[in-house]
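mind reviewing this fold:
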Amino acid sequence: MPGRSVVILPGLGNNSSDYRQLAMTLRSRYGMHVETAPVSRLDWTRNAAGLLDGAYWSGSLCPRPTVDWYLQRVDLAVNKARSACPDKPITLLAHSAGGWLGRVFMLEFGTSALGIDRFVSLGSPHQPPPPGVVDQTRGILTWVSNKCPGTFHEDVQYVTIAGRFIRGASLLGPGNWQQRIVGAGYKQVCGEAEVWGDGIVPLPTAMLEGALQLTLDRVYHSPLGAQQVVVAVDGENFSDKTANEMYKVSLFQTPSPDLSVDEGEIEGASRTSSLSPAESFQLKVTEGPRLWYGSDVVLENWVSTLTDSKSLASVDAL
């Protein structure tokens, strides 16, 4: 019987099937029991119920009852995991909006009684926007930050993971059209356009204070259209092994505002230095095939956080 269960929390607009490959890999390669909260794309229209609440328009919306439907789906998946693996600990693996929704779930449904002892988020917006920026969650993210700030539950180990895929640009500043579009999105989330992020969620919002914080280079936000490995560079075909060897992921804690990184070791993990492949390869990854957090070659670098953060000390270059 697996020693741990993982419950995947889908992100906004995603459905459960988007995480099928990730779930299969966690089961077959890493021996975990995996459940995914049953969510369809159509389900997300339920959030429109918030439009009937005056708090939506004032930006002071509370998560319940608007997202009760999502919390109930997570509860269903958690209970299925408990039934399949009684007395085994549970990791909540939350993608995108599933991050703050998972924090609401732990606050409202509890943790230790359900066997939840670990929370890992992938590209989740955790920080509310600064004053003057319209909260895209209409106040829910501010509510979450006030009610359960940082690593709120002492019996839960938190890991927040972010992707450093593309740097945004202001509409009138230097940069290409893609950077300007991405920058406009970043600005709606954190108030700044010229920051790094995974193409959807900017780095400044993706980390929780007190959590083990990891940033993965060249990792895109969404599983939609993602590839498991990069198999072509400059028109040449490579084997999966070669592609994996060429793709390097950097791990480091709490990036500074300018994202400069010390070359030494970090507490709790040895950061693989940026043994980056050729610049043309990096551009191919950015502009062509997209690897997301759950792609096999990326997963290898953070999968240990689902069970034991301390084991990150063994992470090395691919």
Observations:
- The two ends are 30 Å apart (CA to CA).
- Residues 230-288, 311-318 have pLDDT under 50 and may be disordered.
- The domain at 1-155 is CATH 3.40.50 (Rossmann fold).
